[in-house]
Amino acid sequence: MNTSETTRIVGASVARKEGVDKLLGRARYVDDIEREGMWHGATVRSSIPRGFIRSIGFDRRIDWSQFSVVSASDIPGDNHIQLIVADQPCLADGMVNHREEAILLLAHPDKHKLREAVEAVHIEYEPLPAVFSIEESERQDPIVWGTDNVFKTFLLEKGDVDSAWADAAHIVEGEYRTGAQEHLYIENNGVIAEYSAETGVTVWGSLQCPFYVHKSLLAVFDLPAEKVRVIQTETGGAFGGKEDYPSLLAAHAALLAMKSGHPVKMIYDRMEDLAATTKRHPSRVRHRTALDNEGKLLAMDIEIATDGGAYSTLSSTVLSRATLHSPGPYVCPNVRIRSRSWATNTVPYGAFRGFGAPQTIFAVERHMDEIAAKLGIDPAELRRRNFLHDGDTTATEQVMREPVILDQLLDRALAESNYHAKRAQFTGENPTSAVKRGMGIAAFYHGSGFTGSGERYLNSLAGVDVTPEGEVRVLVSSTEFGQGTNTVLTQIAAEAIGLDYCDVIMAPADTGIVPNSGPTVASRTAMVVGRLIERAGLQLVALLREHAGLGEHFTRAEFFAASERYRAAKGEAVSLCRYQPPPGIFWDDQKYRGEAYPAFAWSVQVAQVAVDTVTCSAEVEEFWAVQEAGRVINPVLATGQIEGGIAQGIGYALYEKVLLQNGQMINNQMTNYIMPTAEDVPPIHAHFVEIPFQHGGYGAKGIGELPHDGPAPAILNAIRDATGVSFHSIPLLPEDLFAALAARQAIEEPAAV
Amino acid sequence: MSECWPTIRITVNGQRHLVQAPPMKRLLDVLREDLHLTGTKEGCGEGECGSCSVRMNGELVNSCLVPALQAEGATIETVEGLAQKGELHPLQQAFLKCGGAQCGICTPGMLMAAKHLLAHNPHPDIAEIREGLAGNLCRCTGFMRIFESVIAAAAQSCVAEEQRGADAR
């Protein structure tokens, strides 16, 4: 694209495409849809974390003739969900590997009959020893997955770490931990499925990736591609939580539909959704860092472990992104990263906004403040001395070919937050106040799009067409779940073609209609798919000029008249484009070296936190985020992404704790899994610096995940600044603060004897 | 047995309905299943998230916690009743303009909570807005755009009031 070109629609805060439907309450989410003769489905789940299924009994108080019952033996094809490694059964067959694993499915015309029926299925088990933490899995006794409990290992080496320690002025070590986090989309997982021998399987659902679900259904039902159709319904939040799980749920509902001969709706209630579906991977990250006298990084030795849960699902790719984000946005000549994802007998962990990056960025950005404290350097200054710049190489030896403006982002964040003056003020006030205030920084990047060769493998196809009804449609499998896909892609199409925003609509996210533009994940939609739509729009105009007499300048009416002529001649007016990698990209999957991401978005965040030493509550009082994420397509939507991501990051740091007992989530209610409310989220100040990325849709880079990466370390750094106490794990709840502050007080003021 | 179920009279968005339902059926389900008003959403089923918020006799309630029998004779307002004669309510207009709705699932409840707030306090300050919406969880926006929407709607209503005042004169 020509970045100097002025745009009409791109860059404008046009109203959300489906906004009016949502505001009128007429947007159709899956639970709002009924099908003729529809039944309801429910799931009988494992009540133990690991063991053999010895018998399944059906209580006689239930008239089972009124129910359809599905077990693994009813599966016509492969009893596995198709992700990276097909190890997760669709239904447990003889053995369970985590609590809440699906064993049997029930359907009945009356949904109110299902709960009692589920409870009337009696399963006897022969329990096996189970593991529930990274440390237990590392002992490799028992082995609960594969031959060694390891889903994936990465080793990434740059320079020579081992020879760096001898000459180092300082060596700083630290261990950092993050807990699981629940997506808490307000709409729970849900689908409706239909089956007929002629047309095969049709699924409507709340989901992110229609073609992921499609792929799994093909395998489970052993059907050809044209006999499976997946249609996304309006989706009430996802955040990664509807990336892989809907494949399982869709298969369940479709099996019940086949068995019962009726459409079957399955909608999880909140307790089931919390107990049985994916969460963010817990992690443990160890840093050993060598520095010179000036605080310049000499070597980083990083060891990462994640808890992947009972099946591999997406753990290997989450670990990859965790690995690639673990050294932070810094230059370091010698880097070694060893990472492993471990199997445990808990519900499989999955995709969640940030996809491994928030875990390792928490570690490195907390660690930078520990280094700053040890060396007596201001945390902002320590970062500045080590920032990546244009021409530097990352840990994978990727050369930074695009502008890197971390210094500018940091300066802006410090100025907007009045960082230095506030720190000085708080340093003066804190000694005599029960409420201690502090300022904390996090600086980071987020790689846009799939890692390494990922986008090449995806080979996405997307486009636009003009219907006989005179509508221009965007043809993508990229889905809307609140983040703005519909709006941003129709803005791009309208811009490229030269029409108005209202002239362009989205084709339904229906695998029977749209091409596979890849999954809606990895902050790739605006950048990668947006670029395809930009190209397809320009290509459509060129086709109409060449074959249908469209003039150099045209009116709306002339455009649709030319489209009509084109369709009359060619049968359809459609323009599709396939992904082309930016030139000069190289990635070595074996050595994990080269261009890890086609582009990076950059951010510096600052948190102002108050710790009440009487109540031991930590409150984020104000938050600043300055970011460079390429061209901003829609400022209001982009700002909404930043603010929403920061709110989730605040929850990750201070509120949200998944309590597990023998692999079972025991606080699986909104009453006791606490997310930030309207009274908890501080004023958030989001600022964009725009540098258009030439290979992104009208210059866009990824934005959705970036804001979630920084709040946790920024907040805990601010708490350290406020209290002088270093915390190394999240979530950090008042009881954790109480324990640490009380312990320190005990040292400072020994009890009178 | 349905013939044993009581008949419940409710007025929803100005329309009177007679509904035969089990007395403990949730008002949420009466709205969604019996009256096919699916704008009101279920998020948690235990009164924590506020997605099912409706106004009942002028009070803001979680319709997942209200048994049908308790709604006997009540006047209910739901999201479907906000827009009048095809024109978006000022709150709906403001949410659209300011980005107050993202995934949209909390939006119907949020709109009803915001309407309730403005009904009692036409010009709330930010602390009052935060308190007024504290029972409605939004996982997408981080609430900033929602606060801005409510402020914008209050300002617009203010303009509308002045306009009406001027017209009256």
Protein architecture, described:
- The complex is a heterodimer of chains A (about 750) and B (about 170).
- Chain A has about 750 residues and is an alpha+beta fold.
- Chain A folds into three domains: about 20-30 and about 460-580, 2-Layer Sandwich (Aldehyde Oxidoreductase, domain 4); about 35-130 and about 185-275, Aldehyde oxidase/xanthine dehydrogenase, molybdopterin binding domain (Aldehyde Oxidoreductase, domain 4, 2-Layer Sandwich), CATH 3.30.365.10; about 285-395 and about 405-450 and about 590-745, Aldehyde Oxidoreductase, domain 4.
- Chain A is about 30% helix and about 25% strand.
- A seven-stranded mixed sheet of chain A has the order 3-5-1-12-9-10-11.
- In chain A, helix 7 packs parallel to helix 8, helix 8 runs parallel beside helix 17 and helix 16 packs across helix 17.
- Chain A is globular and about 75 Å long.
- In chain A, about 60% of the residues are buried.
- The mean pLDDT of chain A is about 95.
- Chain B is of the alpha+beta class and about 170 residues long.
- Chain B has two domains: about 1-80, Ubiquitin-like (UB roll) (Roll), CATH 3.10.20; about 90-170, Orthogonal Bundle (DNA polymerase, domain 1), CATH 1.10.150.
- Chain B has five helices and five strands, in the order ββαβββαααα.
- Chain B has helices at about 25-35, 90-100, 105-120, 125-130, 145-169; strands spanning about 5-10, 15-20, 55, 60, 75.
- Chain B has a five-stranded mixed sheet, with helices on both faces.
- In chain B, helix 2 (about 90-100) crosses helix 5 (about 145-170).
- The longest helix of chain B is centred in the C-terminal third of the chain and has 25 residues, at about 145-170.
- Chain B is globular, with a radius of gyration of 17 Å.
- The mean pLDDT of chain B is about 95.
- Chains A and B meet through helix 1 and helix 16 of A and helix 2, helix 3, helix 4 and helix 5 of B.
